[in-house]
Amino acid sequence: MVPIHLHPGRERRILQGHRWVFSNEITDPLAQFEPGSWVEVFTSKGVSLGSGYINPASLISVRLVCPPGRKPDESFFREAITGAARYRELVYAGSRCCRLIYGESDGLPGLVVDRYGDVLVYQVGTVGMSKLIPLISGLLADVFNPSALVYRNESPSRTLEGLPLESGIERGGLPNPLIVEIDTIKYKVDVLRGQKTGMYLDQRDNRREISCLAEGKKVLDLFCYNGTWSLSAAAAGALETVGVDASAEAVAQAGENASLNKLGERCSFIAENVFEYLKKLKPGQFDIIILDPPAFAKTKSALADAKKGYTDINRRALLALKPGGLLVTCSCSYHMSEELFREVLLAAGQASGRKLRLLQVRGQALDHPALLAMPETRYLKCFILQVI
Q1: pLDDT tier at 44 (50, 70, 90 boundaries)?
Q2: Mind listing the pLDDT tens digit for each residue in 166-175?
Q3: What are phi and psi of 284, to 5 degrees?
Q4: Which domain holds residue 156?
Q5: Are residues 137 and 237 in the same domain?
Q6: Residues 255, 22: Cα–Cα separation, whole Å
């Protein structure tokens, strides 16, 4: 294991629990290192901070994995995987649909694993983790004994790491259809072609929270994908739910899920551009509007345009709410901070002529835990607002 050293004073963030070492913090020439090779990180005074894998071509040069004194062997990774599973059992006891491993938050940077019943789906985003996959996938099979192990390595970040985009079944076979249950609602999941790994799991707790307010209400679900928000509201007694998404395939899946749960009479889904749909609405048509768009700001450079997009779409949504109505509005853009998102919503409220009461500010589900010392692991913002 090759040692690397930090400039004086650069260890403070690491000692607090952050897991990244940036290229400008390292004194050693980076060109000598092979991408994905293992290094031990030392302070300028020679104190070990732990070990991890390095990519000299990345601004995030080292992702720390092992604490000082631990080796990256099978025993270490087995402990990390089983520890992650124990935490999910703690927060979602008995659930067979959740995020099992969430990167740095579970001590396994570059790795995401989602569970859909007996099927596991993993994503690898870094060259260092890709070199560990033969070991990791074997441990996943041994610990969980899945009927199928699927890989969805299609994130654009892989290109930056010099990795190919690929997906497929590594072992086993998929049931047809694959059906999972979350909070008594059943969903058909396409883990090979669906968005992300097949579903958006990070809004689970937020859907449960808003369903408590949906009884007897007319609900609009924008960017509905496969209908998770709509079905949660309908199952909780919403009078009517309307889901809108630009993808005809997603809307078809949402309709199938509504039928699967015998909620088809109260759920309708429309394949249309959300911005165009909002332009046609009359003021005050809905009691609750859920606005859960994809990331408008995938990079820091896109933030200015993203602010305009978030402001406009929230303004239009506010106009479509009845007095006293609720706006559940989200941003999954890490670069859109909570403070900046609040400013966007203030601007949208002012532009719409609506005064807003803040009921809750929420984040991602408990199976997507964030590290206190690493704000990068907390990306989802969910504001629940009331028009007054």
Answers
A1: very high
A2: 999 999 999 9
A3: 70, 35
A4: 74-172
A5: no
A6: 46
